[in-house]
């Protein structure tokens, strides 16, 4: 009985996931990834201000935002889908033809922001600063290649 229920549940979940990816509209994928990057900027900006001394360094706030940034870095990749490069987007179509390079850039971003979140736990700006610069480099590297 329990086993049957489990099988039923798994089937239902699989079906839902299938439908979700099959029915996603291009504009929804574009809005989603742009929204995620807006949130990335929302947190990355204040981090940069603290690193550069434009605002006072607050270890707790820095750590909170760095953790959110690391979580956000996991989110945009799945929305770069075929058919989502022609309208109202700054994403270049070569993301599809240079997929491995794009994915590597996304992984660099994820790793660098995870390392920034770890460095933030020290509360020491001297070890945070290089981790922040490394993360900023991953933004630029990808934008230079894949953003209009
Ligand atoms: C692996 C590639 C990649 C990485 C890494 C990356 N971006 Fe982007 N970003 C893009 C692409 C592609 C777009 C254009 C998305 C679109 O218009 O569909 C974009 C768009 C944006 C936007 C504009 C969002 C909007 O439409 O208003 C901002 C802001 C942004 N990125 C900030 C950042 C910051 C800050 C980082 C690093 C902390 C970063 N990105 C890292 C690829 C990347």
From TrEMBL:
Gene Ontology molecular-function annotations: electron transfer activity; heme binding; iron ion binding
Gene3D superfamilies: Cytochrome c/b562 (1.20.120.10)
InterPro entries assigned to the protein according to its UniProt record, in alphabetical order: Cyt_c/b562 (IPR010980), Cyt_c_II (IPR002321), Cyt_c_prime (IPR012127)
Entry keyword annotation includes Coiled coil: no
Keyword Lyase attached: no
Modification note: Binds 1 heme group per subunit.
Signal peptide: 1-22
A GO term from the CC aspect: periplasmic space
Residues where heme c binds: 139, 142-143
Keywords: Electron transport, Heme, Iron, Metal-binding, Signal, Transport
One example of a Gene Ontology biological process annotation: electron transport chain
UniProt protein name: Cytochrome c
Source species: Venatoribacter cucullus
Lineage of producing organism: Bacteria, Pseudomonadati, Pseudomonadota, Gammaproteobacteria, Oceanospirillales
């Amino acid at each position: 009985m329990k086993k049957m229920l489990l099988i039923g549940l798994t089937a239902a979940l699989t079906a839902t996931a299938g439908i979700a990816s099959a029915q996603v509209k291009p504009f929804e994928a574009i809005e989603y990834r742009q929204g995620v990057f807006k949130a990335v900027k929302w947190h990355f900006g204040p981090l940069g201000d603290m690193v550069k001394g434009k605002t006072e360094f607050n270890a707790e706030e820095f750590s909170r935002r760095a953790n959110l940034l690391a979580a956000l870095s996991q989110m945009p990749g799945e929305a770069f889908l075929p058919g989502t490069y022609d309208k109202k987007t700054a994403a270049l179509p070569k993301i599809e033809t240079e997929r491995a390079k794009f994915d590597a850039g996304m992984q660099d971003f994820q790793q660098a922001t995870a390392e920034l979140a770890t460095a933030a736990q020290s509360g020491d700006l001297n070890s945070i600063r290089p981790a922040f610069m490394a993360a900023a480099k991953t933004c630029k590297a990808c934008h230079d290649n894949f953003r209009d």
